[in-house]
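fwd from M.: "can u put these together and see what the complex looks like"

so here's what she sent:
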Amino acid sequence: MAEIVLENVVKNFGKVRALRGVTVEVKDGEFLVLLGPTGAGKTTTLRIVSGLEEPDEGKVYIDGQLMNGVAPRDRNCAFVFQNYILYPHMTVYDNLAFPLRSKLWRVEEDEIRRRIERVARVLKIEHLLRRKPDKLSGGEQQRVALGRAMVRNPRVFLMDEPLSNLDAKLREEMRVELKSLQKNLQATFFFVTHDHVEAMTLGDRVVVLNQGSVMQVGAPEVVYSRPANLFVARFVGTPEINLIPAEVMGETLRCKTMGTTWKLSEIPFFQEVRNIPSRVFMGIRPEDILLGQGDKFGEVYLVEDLGVDKVIRVKTDHTILRVRASQEAQFAVGERVPYLFRTEKLIFFDPVTEKLLG
Amino acid sequence: MKKDTGGMYQKALAEYRLKIYFLAPTLLVLIVMNVFPLIWSLGLSFTNYSSLMSKRIAWVGFTNYSRILSDPFIWKYFQTTARFVIIAVGIEFLLGFGLALLLKEQFRGWGLVTTLILIPMMLSPVVVGLFWTFIMDANFGLLNFLLGLLGFKKILWLTNPHLALYSVAMVDIWMWTPFIMLISLTGLLAIPQSLYEAADIDMASWWFKFRKITLPLVSPLLVLAVLFRVIDAFKMFDLVFIMTGGGPGDVTETISMSLYRLAFNKFKTGESCAMAYIILILIIALSNLLIRWIHRTKTA
């Protein structure tokens, strides 16, 4: 197993600046998730680790060895591609055997068979071994791609959105399996996704990437509860976080667009943090707003029933708040409801630098 | 309701008629130029008909066929043809596929180079035959002039009986290598680059990738290209006719050349029809073998 270090990696495709100095460290045996929107440079980062792309600047280390200029085949990284890329003219068995047969040192066919059978058992694809990829469903292909990565005990597993082509139910199953697989193999996983739920559930740590720059690195719960900047706050979590412009005026915090004010003494943040600019962005997650209590009122604007819970949009003056409420909550559109902010959960951002305050 | 279906019937009929109108000219040409001669010549192959003489046509049964199949010269010409096909198509295949592998990678001036390579294929065989006859002329040919500059002896390209067939094959190779290259290149470019990336990740060497990915995926097209060339080379007539006329002696006498002689020098029309049928059957058999082989590689 191995650790990966990217140091200040820059990559340009023509005029497009794909990566603008990315520094990431994947620890030995860690499940690191690289999270970001389309075009953030996630896949490029992964391809640079695997050697399919060379960085324009910066260094790549695997296990402390400098990997710049080293061919992919000499890096011993497994790569699970987004669309799997199985060899279409070979059976599943031959697909799985490919990396073992192609190695510079020959692996005996008996040994190959033993390894393939073991991997096939783990991934439950034993019955598919004689088939060709075009006769497999998406989930089955995904397992085969995973199997092809597993058979040769690579130093690291690089995964480029391997679950994105699966339907929701299968994706959830595979998520659980991937996580347990990683724990069993004690392997280093570098996993790319644009799905923050996937990132939250899978990652030991999450790296948020946007437009080729690292926005935040941290444990999933930290990225969620204390996003480093406005981008991360917005990108992570559905429904999206509520971000409300506010002004500090004397001993009160005034939200003009909501038409309401708080006493600074009510908000723990202001007791702990000094040097707060007078204008801020106030952030609060939908589940940290409680409906049906408190002394402030809003009007129910829209109710979305998600099955497990409801998302209720509450209009207060010019702002529409997203609120997560339990399934039992009964609100009618147009109804006036009291709401309460869990003030200990409030986070604040500098509107100029867009960075988290405190 | 009844009226409606009647209208639809009328409309369908009109469409059907329209299709017939569009197809009719082609069908007519095909019937007059291909189908009729095919059947007529089959009939002639069982007669002693000669287009030169106005004697009565007599039914001779399989006499023409047995005469041809027992003619030792015909077998020699078949061998000559086979040698020509194997040499020419074999080298065309190696060169064409090799060139395609080189041209698979994009480089500056790729379009120009590819177009230049394709030029020989676009020329008329008669023109090619004529100017190569000049180039290969023993006394004032360009080839011998260049050899002379390098201090070599003159080579009798087209008049040395040991060399003539190879010289003609060389021209065929010059002319048709681009064809194999073009088809191979199409096949190579159709292989997704991502497969090679997957193979890179799977630690495959260049040779392993070539053997396990390139060859199996491009082989159906390669077989097709070779099939075209084999059928075409088997019918080799134009280059031989222009460059050597089958000579010196009969060392470059291909089966088509000999067929031509039988039909238009000796005017044994009935016999030549029989011979044409024998060649046709051979070519069909040969192509069937190759096509079956494509199917086998597909299912394997």
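replying to her w this: Chain B touches chain A through 17 residues (CB under 8 Å).
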